[in-house]
Amino acid sequence: MKTVYIITYPVPTNIKKLIDFNTSIFLIVVDQAMDYIGDLKKDIHCWIGDFDSTKTKDFSNELITLPTEKDITDTEAAVLYAKTLNPSKIVILGGIGGKRFEHALSNMILLSKYDDLEIITDDSSMKVLGEGIHQIDFKGYVNIFSVESSRVSLKGFKYPLQNYRMKINDNIGISNELVERIGFIEVLEGKVLLILTKEQ
C-alpha cells in the first residue's frame, strides 16, 4: 500500500527530508505550493487547485483544475482525491503557518474529519487519536487537545493523567514531556488531537 503525500502552502523548508522515498508513494501538490518545491517538481504525480495564486505554468503529469468558488478548500479536495487511491495513509506536508491562519485551522479540522490523516511541518506533526492505547516515543513537547468530550489517561509523562475527562476548551494537555522512553496515551472515550513539537 502506498503513502500519499499532499504538499500544501506554506511548504516546509526541508520538504524532501519529510518524504520517505524508499517506500511506495504518490505525490500531490496543491495550487501555489508548486512554486516552492524546487526540483521536487519532477517527482510530482498530480497537481490540484483552482490555480488562482500560482506562478508556475508548465506541468506534464495529471492536472486537476478546481472551480474558484466551491464549498471546500483545495487541500480538502486533494484529500478526497487521495482517498480514491486507497492509500495506507495520507500525509499533508505544510499547510500550517503563514498569513492565512484560517487556512491553517481548516487544515487541522480535516484531521478530525478524515481517518488516517496526518499533518507534518518542519517543527511539528499532528494527528487525531481514537479510542485505544497509543505508544509515544518522542523527544520534545507532547500536546493533546480534545476533539470532542473525551476521557484520557497518560502514563510515562511528566504530567500524568488518570481517566481524566477532557473538554474541548481544556488546555491541560499542552507542553507535556516523556519521563520514560515510551509513553502511553489511552483514549478511553472520544477523540484527541495529538501534536508533537520539536524542542527549539
TrEMBL record:
Residues 132-193 form the Thiamin pyrophosphokinase thiamin-binding domain. Keywords: ATP-binding, Kinase, Nucleotide-binding, Transferase. The keyword Transmembrane helix does not apply. InterPro entries: Thi_PPkinase, Thiamin_PyroPKinase_B1-bd, TPK, TPK_B1-bd_sf, TPK_catalytic, TPK_catalytic_sf. The keyword Lyase does not apply. Its EC number is 2.7.6.2. One of its GO terms (molecular function) is kinase activity. GO terms for biological process: thiamine diphosphate biosynthetic process; thiamine metabolic process. It is an enzyme of class 2 (transferase). PANTHER family: THIAMINE PYROPHOSPHOKINASE. This is Thiamine diphosphokinase. The lineage of its organism: Bacteria, Bacillati, Mycoplasmatota, Mollicutes, Acholeplasmatales. The gene is thiN.
